Please model this.
Amino acid sequence: MKTTKKSKPSKNAPKSAKPWGGRFTEATNQLVDEYTASIPYDWRLYPYDIAGSVAHAEMLGKTGILTKKETVLIIRGLESIRKEIASGDFAFRIELEDIHMNIESRLIENIGPLGGKLHTARSRNDQVALDLRLYLRDEIAEIHWLLRQLQAVLVGLAEKHTGTVMPGYTHLQRAQPVLFGHHLLAYYEMFDRDRARLEDCFGRVNVLPLGAGALAGTVHPIDRTFVARKLGFDAVAENSIDAVSDRDFAIEFAAACAQIMMHLSRFSEELVLWSSAEFGFISLSDAYATGSSIMPQKKNPDVAELTRGKTGRVYGSLLSLLTVMKGLPLAYNRDMQEDKEPVFDAADTVNRALTVFAGMLQRITVHVGAMRRAADDGFITATDLADYLVRKGMPFREAHEVVGRAVLLASGAGRGLHDVTLDEYRKLTPLIGHDVYDALSLEASVGRRTSYGGTAPTNLKKRLQALKKQIAKELSAR
Ligand code: ARG
Model:
């Protein structure tokens, strides 16, 4: 830890290190210092704390609450603290509780009592709400972008599989053939909704709480609109009490993260299944798998498993936040300091999960033959046989019954629907003709599903064209 050069204290300078030490006669118990401090984790808010302080100082200067000279000196002092922290030279002090008091105290150390003017018309209550909102703006933008990159990987992979047939499942039982590319684009849609949720959440994050003071506003002639403009906020919080008590925006963010993880977890589950010997649909690249310390033959899908597992952590963060807030009277309560770790952990976990997941997905090997063999089980096109009969005029419910009997007949003899002879079919219903065997093929099954959003290759190719255009446009705009 670096020691710091002290400037000369003024007559009224705080007698303890604590900016709030005035009314206290006893030093804080060491355990209390440790118990109440958030600096071990909230130090990472420093770029936001400083950006917020710079904007606040500029506003104090602009409104004449500080002189131009004082403003310049304070901002210069803040900038040098930013550099000091970034370089790793800053000595954080636990007895200064949090990032806000660590920075303020250092500012006073460096530029003298003038540093104490920065906190005019401000409280840590509106300050911490501001910092968290600034932090979340960046995190939301980053996660939004990572989702987009994962979507680009999905589109790239789906493009290679516009003709790859796999079994589609319900109840994890083979249901109807689908294109692998179509299956992948189901995840595209989920991640699209995740992005929309983040965008929506951003709107409520991007509201300026600063200027609420501790809870009641301030007597000083501040200009909140000026600060909002400086910091890129779209709006100014209307109610000072709400501004310091509200953590809805953090809960919404955690909820959006929880849903992203839920989607990644379902995808992970499929990758785990698909990479098993039982399915054999894909192989993971060695770079994205791990081995067993005892069983030399093993290659385990740990990235997918951990993503599934980490989903629980993120749900935990959401639950923590909801629970912390549920019993709090207005306005600020120290309980709210417990918001930081869950928010940071949710953001970090989602960030890493999306990054590693995209890398893993990009490098999977798809076993087209195994997918096709699994789909070609003799019965997966049973619905197509029923639809064939519907096209010949039979009501669907009757067709379902007839096909059910055909399934019974064939499976009893260890055959599939395409092995049932025309004579056998005709005994079930005279509506069946030679053309039935074409209707039973996998290609016919997927090819006919041209209803909007269906799995037909023509649909998939069209959708991919549109998505590629969108992605290319966004990439060029970035
Ligand atoms: N470290 C505190 C937090 O994270 C900052 C606000 C403290 N305000 C207070 N009045 N003690 O919530």
Remarks:
- The CA atoms of residues 125 and 309 lie 35 Å apart.
- The first helix runs from residue 30 to 36.
- The radius of gyration is 31 Å.
- The longest strand covers residues 173-179.
